[in-house]
Specification:
The protein has one domain: Aminopeptidase (3-Layer(aba) Sandwich). Helix 1 crosses helix 2. It has 137 residues and is an alpha+beta fold. It has a 5-stranded mixed beta sheet.
């Protein structure tokens, strides 16, 4: 597969079907409700920033974040099709997301176990504590 120039964009109207496909292709689908298109649709519509990477129109990466555009930006999903990983797409999606959220924001994420080693390589700093309350369903 030859990669043409990857096109990056903000796509607030991204369709749930495309979101689902890239989640599955990235393995992030193992930890997301990919069987529930209605829920994926709500996840998209209630996000503040949706940055995408496309190869010839095909969605190969996505960053989905919630932000106040002033102080913080929580990057909830970073997914890159496994066939396109290790090509700088994830790093660029993070940059595009942070740019859209604004220079005054700190970008925050919780890494998937398999991705923990990736984030220090692209210049992110690990914080020693994170606290959560689990989903009720």
């Amino acid at each position: 597969m030859g990669i043409v120039e990857i096109q990056y964009a903000l796509e607030p109207g991204l369709r749930a079907e495309e979101f689902r496909a890239v989640l599955i292709a990235s393995t992030l689908g193992e930890r997301r409700p990919v069987e529930d298109l209605e829920r994926l649709e709500r996840m998209l519509r209630n996000a503040d920033v949706i940055a995408t990477a496309r190869d010839g129109g095909r969605l190969v990466g996505i960053s989905r974040a919630v932000t106040d555009f002033s102080y913080c930006c929580y990057l909830s999903d970073l997914a890159v099709d496994v066939a396109y990983q290790r090509k700088g797409i994830g790093k660029r999606l993070i940059e595009e997301t942070h740019r859209a959220a604004g220079d005054e924001t700190s970008l925050i994420l919780v890494a998937a176990p398999a991705a923990e080693g990736y984030y220090p390589k692209i210049g992110m700093t690990q914080r020693p504590s994170c606290w959560t309350i689990a989903k009720k369903r």
